[in-house]
Design goal:
heterodimer, A: alpha+beta, B: alpha+beta, Alpha-Beta Plaits, 54% helix, 26% strand
Amino acid sequence: MVNVLPPKHTRMMTVRYYTRLATLLFFILAGSFLVGGALLIPSYIASSAQADSFEQYRDALAGSIGLKERGQTESTVLALAERLRIVKEHHELVRVVDVLETLFAKQSSTILIDAVSLSRTEGGVTIKIAGVADTRAALIAFVDVVRADTAFSNVALPVAQLVIEKDVPFSLGMEYRIP
Amino acid sequence: MKPFLPLIATSIAVLLLGGGYFFMLTQVDASVLRIESAIASAEALTKKDVGLQTTEVFLKETTELRETLATTVIGKDDVVEIIQLLETVARDTNTDLSISDVVLESGGGWQSHERAIVVFSLEGSFGALVEFMGTIESLPVVARVENSNLEKSGARTWFGTFTVTVVKEKL
């Protein structure tokens, strides 16, 4: 087939052809967007309503929990836990009377204690006693008896106190822990 | 120009309708995200609510026990009760009590409780002083002897200085 049209007309027809083709494509595309957009409207309305409803539910729940929290439930439980810890620690404590009873049970008639100092430490009691022993041997024997008890540790008797042989004034330091 | 007018018009229509379509799409997407976020928050809050309800039931069921436990510490406004307690124990053990200081001390990792530190001296027989200390530490309240210095002051009498801590509810 021979094209007898002049080249100028041929070019013009080609341009018109592509212009109309593009117009048609754009028209179809615009139609698709229009239909798609219209179809999204129910989803948009439904999802917006659903989102609002869920957010209202969440806010209501948060409000109700907030009220309960303001009702001091949490602080009551924390105070209870703290009180239980305090009571537990108290029951595990070394009783000062037990320390004194244990110590004075070791005192023989040759030892006279006339001062006692007790100071509570972490997990035990630091003890300082002062008194007079009949003899040096009695003092050493008393110290040995105290040292033999595993509840007492660091039983310190200054050697200088052993210089005197009779009526020996002494001071003794030690620590007590529950064996 | 005239042959291009339909093309220009459809182009504008594509831009406008495309914009509208994508606007709707992003709105739906945003709503879905809002729903997801609200559901996640609601689930977390529901768990918390269940926990709080369980706690409330626990507190209700243990009311009597908690009331008994509460008697192990001195009430927040009952500092005088501590002094009266010491005076009663001193009277019962035949010792002469002289309170020199009462201080309230917070801390020690406690939020709802504090220590009442009482410093006092006591005079009596050695047995009476020991009985006093024993009674203090055996009371149905959380009290303990922190420091004590006992010294013979006469043929049958001893003099002692004491520091006792009593746990009380925080003011």
